[in-house]
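Narrative of activities, Objective 1.

The group set out to show that a structural description can be obtained from nothing but a protein's sequence at a throughput compatible with the screening campaign. Below is one input-output pair from the validation batch, recorded exactly as produced.
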Amino acid sequence: MSLTLVEAAKLNSGDVIRSAIIELYARSSDVLQYLPFDDIQGNAYKYNREETLPGIGFRGVNEAYSESTGVLNPITEPLVIAGGDLDVDKFIVDTMGLSQRSVQEAMKVKALSLNWTKTFIKGDQQSEPREFDGIQVRCTGDQVISNGTDAGGTALSLAKIDTLIDQVNEPQYLLMNKAMRRRLTQAARTYTVSGFLTYTQDSFGRTQTVYNDLPILICDEDNEGNQILPFTEAAASGDSVTSSIYCVSFGDGKLMGLQNGGMDVRDIGELDTKPALRTRVEWYNGIAVFHGKSVARLRYIKDDTVTV
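Output recorded for this entry:
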């Protein structure tokens, strides 16, 4: 059974440190809060992804059916190693208390979580073999929708968002940056544009914006403070001044995470090489797109007032 990190942390009540770090991972990333992970054996997962369905027809009496089979595309998803060492100088612990170790660990875990989120969107094994391919690379063909063809990008259109949503089977979430969410909020206050926005709460009780019943997941900054979905993507035939919105469907048979054994959190103790206490976090993970229409991308959006 696949579980989100939030659910995994609840079930792992026997190890307080590990549960806390797993929850910190999820709290620091909207994607990790909702993306379910399936435990697999080995260092890769092989599966067949449905490409086309077999043909179906009618026949007359004493006639035969036309033979037809579907097309399955074999895919292999390798796991990658994500994690890091969380070192806290013993001087800090001795002079400021053991709680300072938790503070430093929380900062490190947040950095790891933000880096993973960037990889989920922008990961590209061609440029960095140590990471998995993100959803930007995986979206091809009909799953990439152009918001417009202007060289300088085109203002976000509500009609295009609806087209994006329709391109995903059983859509669940929209992924965008904060500026794009502000533009939608602004449009909802403008009677000539509108846009159906409501509000709910996420798994941690924080306010969450919802567009047409789809919660908006924010992909904000990575661990170095750089925007994950900045307005620096190339427009149709011009400047690098646009961004993208993604629509996703998470769950079994859709878009989901893969892992072997869950997140491993180990207290290494004091190091021999320096007076510091080390906690090591390692996670063998990846993602898989089991259905070709579980994710779609709307591109070429400039930072401007939303249109209908």
